[in-house]
Design brief:
Length: 245
């Protein structure tokens, strides 16, 4: 049977997941695109349902099939592929990091959050903490993470509880007043802190920083995008460790 009504209860539920309020309420988020859905399943994520158009019916045999018009109404893509999964948001209770980690302090752009998670996965950082940042399970953030959201443990919380959780980890804040990151020797265990796109690191986080580092730039460049800065810093710190400081 093919669902052709946008008033179908399942379709209404999927449509509601574009809103953070309902993602939090239902504990679910959307993964869209054939490659992403397959990767999500391969990573062991809990996909409650897969919804697709007829063109993907054979490829995803356990799926709920909907008309092209209905799928378009629930898709967050400009050009929908025709398959998405409803996935359970992992319940990661705040706990201290196992290894080196990333802290996002009030980062508001979902594209930046997703890209940082993607880069953290690539660079070998297994845990990302978020303080008052945008929802990492929003469609745009999930899309930007390019599968990183399935592999990285993401912890969200208030400033005090996250900072208390990171108590035994040296905070390295990225800031233009810091020392050259390419000449910096990080401690054995650290947390790289990336601040808000416009305001940078908050006073509460910077006051707890053990170190402050900067990415040197030409005078004609005022700043770098938060996700770009995070990516450069992640690899610079890893490289320093691999060289034995």
């Amino acid at each position: 049977m093919i669902i052709t009504s946008k008033s179908n209860p399942l379709i209404k539920t999927v449509a509601s997941l574009s809103d953070k309020k309902f993602r939090k309420q239902l504990g679910l988020y959307i993964v869209e695109g054939a490659k992403s859905v397959k990767e999500c399943i391969a990573a062991g994520c809990e996909a409650e349902k897969i919804i697709c158009t007829e063109s993907y019916q054979n490829e995803f045999q356990e799926s709920v099939v909907v008309s092209d018009a209905v799928f378009k109404s629930i898709s967050t893509e400009t050009t929908p592929q025709g398959v998405l999964a409803i996935v359970k948001i992992p319940k990661n209770e705040l706990k201290p990091p196992v290894g080196n980690c990333i802290l996002l302090d009030c980062v508001q752009d979902p594209g930046n959050v997703g890209t940082v998670i993607r880069t953290a996965n690539a660079a070998g950082y297994d845990e990302v903490y978020l303080i008052n940042s945008t929802d990492p399970f929003s469609p745009k953030a999930v899309r930007a993470s390019m599968g990183g959201i399935f592999r990285i443990k993401v912890y969200c919380g208030g400033r005090d509880e996250v900072l208390n959780c990171l108590e035994g980890c040296a905070l390295i804040c990225a800031d233009m007043d810091g020392e050259n990151i390419f000449e910096f020797s990080p401690p054995e265990k650290f947390c790289l802190c990336i601040g808000n796109e416009g305001g940078g690191i908050s006073k509460e986080v910077s006051s707890r920083a053990a170190y402050t580092v900067k990415i040197p730039m030409r005078e004609t460049c005022e700043s770098l995008n938060a996700a770009v800065s995070a990516g450069i810093a992640m690899y610079a710190l890893k490289n320093s460790i691999n060289r034995g400081n």
